[in-house]
Amino acid sequence: MTAADRRDESVQYATFEVGGHYLGIPVLQVQEVLREQYLTPVPLAPRVISGLINLRGQIVPALEMRTLLQLPERAEPEGTLSVVLRTEVGLVSLQVDEIGDVLEIEGAAVEASPANLEPHIRRLLSGVCRIGSRLLLVLDIHNAVDLTAAYGLSGSELN
Amino acid sequence: MESQEIVTEFLLESSENLAKLDQDMVELERQPANRDLLASVFRTIHTIKGTCGFLGFDRLSALTHVMEDILAQLRDGRRMLDADLTTMLLESVDGTRRMLASIEAGQGEGPVFEHALIARLEMVRDGKTAIAPVARGSAAIADAGPPPEAGPAQASAPATGRTGATADSTLRVDIGLLDRLMNLVGELVLTRNQLVQHNAGREDSALNAISQRLNLITSELQEAVMKTRMQPIGVVWNKLPRLVRDLATTLKKQIAIETDGAETELDRTIIEAIKDPLTHIVRNSCDHGIEGPADRVAQGKTGQGHLTLRAWHQGGQVNIEIADDGAGIDPARVKAKALERRLITEEQAARMSPREAVNLVFLPGFSTAQAVTSISGRGVGMDVVRTHIERIGGTVDLASQPGHGTTVRVRIPLTLAIIPGLVVQAGGERFVIPQVNLHELIQTAEGGTEIEFAHSAAVLRRRNALLPLADLCEVLGLAPARRPGEASVVVLQADQHCFGLIVDSICDSEEIVVKPLGNQLKPLNCYAGATIMGDGRIALILDVAGLAQRTRMMDAAARAVRAAGSAAVDTADARRGLLLLFQAGSERLAVPLGRVARLEKIAASAVEHACGRPVAQYRNRILPLLELPQADTGGREEDVLSVVVFRSAAGEFGLIVDEITDIVNESVVDAVGSDRFGLLGSAIIGGRVTDVVDVDSLAETAAWASSGALARLGEALSASGETARCEVLQ
Predict the structure, then answer these.
(1) How many structural domains compose chain A?
(2) Residues paired with residue A135 on neighbouring β-strands, in sequence order
(3) Are residues B267 and B240 in the same domain?
(4) Are both B397 and B445 inside the same structural domain?
(5) Which among B184, B190, B517 has CB closest to A59?
(6) Among all residues of chain A, which has the CA nearest to that of B184?
(7) Interface pTM (ipTM) of the complex?
(8) Contacts of B669 in chain A (CB under 8 A)
(9) Which residues of chain A are within 8 Å of residue B429 when distances are taken between CB atoms?
(10) Domain ends where: B395, B413, B431?
(11) Rounded CA gap, A120 and A124, in Å?
(12) Are residues B27 and B124 in the same domain?
């Protein structure tokens, strides 16, 4: 898909809140949203993996969005929502605070992430978009679920 | 008519062929010059014609005969295939199909004979009709005459439900779908378990009845779905006769292969996994086992060697036996080789039974072949076979009678999807250990005799050897949830190495459904997968080999521990970089294992004093004993002292310690110097601050006296004819 194509198309985004930030994911990649799933911890895994979810017998790793976005940890873990995504590495769940509406956004409305964004956060976003008075951060799912860096960074911690 | 079986076979075969014919014809129309396609179509029709002639289906034979004639014309280039002719031929294929359906329904070739069709075909064949009108004509005839489809269609309609089975009785199904089905059934089994568990304490009889029924149906469904994934082992064996034939030719040997139990069924994932190991074993038998014809005859055997493959079910497992009547394996030669390669010690070799000895061929780095041949002996040997088989939860064992042959027996589970495992608890979480890695279970308790228990347990004295221990909580960074001093040790085996895993408690062994962990957890080599327990929660399955690697219990370390525990430490190589950790008072201490001569246990009562210093007698020599001054020894009450014996230029000396905790292969992180006696300084080893012992300064303290004094003493005592050192001591 070229940039021009993307500009013409409008995409539906599922939106959610994480630590005061407003995030969006193309709705077609969302399989389902689950409430308060029990997370089985995975010792030695990178911190961003907050556990495993039993999704009708399928084992789905859950990534804590707050950790991923380097935000302060959740005060009370209750009420966390799991957004299960279909990704190229299989099903992955993102742990978020609150789920919002599905918005239809024209490709042209999505602007490039600001240049002064920290590089590791910038990497996670495919763009930003003004929605009323707020800014929607459009998540780059490919990069968000890629944990190579997480393993690399925490390599010494793992031992 | 011939026996029903032949007819059934014919019908099945024909219906498959016809399906292919449809495709081929369409393809042929697109590339009429493709001779291979044409030949294939011709062959198919020819086969049907031949068989139905033989079975007495004359009318079907007549139809296919005309088709064959036309195809022959095409083949010989006397006619070109065009769209109309293709339609014509496809119509004939349909006619053939209708007749076959009628035969299958038990109504002979059908009440309506496809006269019109055959007549038209004959006209086309004889060139009496232009092809274009024929196509139109065909429509006309179909309209005018009794509709050819009507009869058979009506006749076969009721039949389809009944016996349409033959053609449709087998179905190719996508493997992915079967896997998905298996997953879902596994899921259903778990849900069933939960429901049954939930119901156990209730008095709702209606609900109980329903759950009972669900229970039964689930079990049956599970069994049926498992069956869909089963394949006979013959799938793998079928390729072996050709392999053996080729090998025999290359090696100039005569080898006959026999199989028994080729119908024994296994899960397809297992079939896939045993393909290579089996081939390797067979190659080995042909290459190393069976002798050349001349040798065999010289030994009074037949010139032709025999290779026998047997497979059978036994107690939920499959046994596969590969037996040859070749030269067998000489236990003495195997032992010698293993010794030469330093895979075993002299002592171990002496204790080994012949059967144990021949099984040494499974050790990594072992190959008895004198020369590398093109067939086997390229470094990948029986150890790879064993690794592969163990990976799928199987075992492999070898029995050999020198001069009479070798039998390799492989035992493998029927399926990988459900394996027996031991559920253990550590740090409040449940983990599953595959049964196949399990060696034994040891319950420890306060005052347990053989267990040396520092606050984080490290070694277990078990049958005269030190078994290195790893604490699962520590390895995984969990907080132990057990009372101090009370823990369970699970003795595990990974590859060649045994080690003990300390867990909080051992729950139960049960059959678990193995689920893969996603890519995102692949870098963690300590988990083999996950499973869902009866309560719906997830439990991680431990990968014992990965865990061993993580705890650095493998290879050099494990060998060094064993050597240190048994007696003399032999090779310095194996110990390079290894540190012996021990506890003296409240201090955690470390010393390079290379400086350690051995570990000793000395009875407290055996400690004597010489020149006011503690000593012990050891092999008619005096062993000076030291203690680190800062170690708090007031409270030591044990009857047996742990002593680390060092060798220095001035002789051996022992250091009394409280506990030997571990032998680790750690790199030293951030060291600080110290001027305290006997210590070089402190370093972070294994994540904890540890003092490093200064062996040289201890050695100086331990030295009895200056060499001059010793010489004079020797002179003074030499008159008595005894050696100086012994005299001094007595």
Answers:
(1) 1
(2) A130
(3) yes
(4) no
(5) B517
(6) A57
(7) 0.85
(8) none
(9) 40-41, 43
(10) B413
(11) 7
(12) yes
Residue B565 lies in a domain: no
Residues B161 and B183 in one domain: no
- To the nearest whole Å, the CA of B64 is away from the closest chain A CA by 52
Contact A59 B536 (CB under 8 A): no
Determine the residue of chain B that is closest to A56 in CA distance: B187
Model confidence at B716, pLDDT cuts 50, 70, 90, reads low
CATH of the domain at A98: 2.40.50.180
Residues sharing a CB contact under 8 Å with residue B302, sequence separation 6 or more, in sequence order: B296
Query: How crowded is the C-beta side of B178, counted as CA atoms within 13 Å?
Result: 17
Task: Tell me whether A57 touches chain B (CB under 8 Å).
Answer: yes
B160, burial (CB in 10 Å: exposed 0-12, middle 13-18, buried 19+): middle
pLDDT digits (tens, 9 = 90+) for B43-69: 888 888 877 777 778 788 888 888 888
CATH of the domain at B183: 1.10.287.560
Preferred mutation among B519, B520, B524 to probe A, highest tally of A CBs within 10 A: B520
Q: Which residues of B touch A (CB under 8 A)?
A: 183-184, 186-187, 190, 427, 429, 476-478, 515-521, 523-524, 526-527, 530, 532, 536-540
Domain with B354 in it: what CATH number?
Answer: 3.30.565.10
Which domain, by its residues, includes B130? 4-168
Question: Which residue in chain B is spatially nearest to A58 when comparing CA positions?
Answer: B515
> Which structural domain range is residue A99 located in?
3-158
Residues B356 and B486 in one domain: no
Per-residue pLDDT, A37? 84
B82-123 confidence digits (pLDDT tens)? 777 877 887 888 888 888 888 877 777 765 657 777 888 888
Q: Which two tokens stand for residue B101?
A: 């359906």
Task: State the CATH number of the domain containing residue B441.
Answer: 2.40.50.180
Whether the CB of A49 is below 8 Å from some CB of chain B: the reply is: yes
Residues B308 and B290 in one domain: yes
The number of folded domains in chain B is 5
Question: Which pair of tokens denotes residue B319?
Answer: 């046994």
Among B473, B503, B504, B538, the residue to mutate for chain A (most A Cβ within 10 A): B538
Secondary element (H or E) of residue B530: strand B527-532
Separation in Å, CA B14 to CA A110, B5, B99: 61, 14, 11
Confidence grade of residue A30 (pLDDT, cut at 50, 70, 90) = very high
CB atoms B427 and A45 under 8 Å: no
* Phi-psi domain of B577 (left: phi exceeds 0; alpha: psi -120 through 50; beta: other): left
User: Which chain A residues have a beta carbon less than 8 Å from that of B476?
Assistant: 43-44
**Contact by Cβ (8 Å): B185, B225:** yes
Query: Among B413, B442, B460, where does a domain finish?
Result: B413
Q: Are residues B241 and B189 in the same domain?
A: no
Q: How far is C-alpha B469 from the chain's CA centre?
A: 25
* CA pair distance B177, B182, nearest whole angstrom: 9
CA torsion through residues B169, B174, B175, B178, sign: negative
In a domain, B249, yes or no: yes
For residue B38, tell me if it sits in a domain: yes
- Tell me the helix, strand and coil percentages in chain A, rounded to 5: 20, 45, 35
Proportion of chain B above pLDDT 90, given as a percent: 3
Q: Is residue B727 part of a domain?
A: no
Question: Do residues B207 and B325 share a domain?
Answer: no
d(CA B566, CA B466): 8
The amino acid occupying position B449 is: T
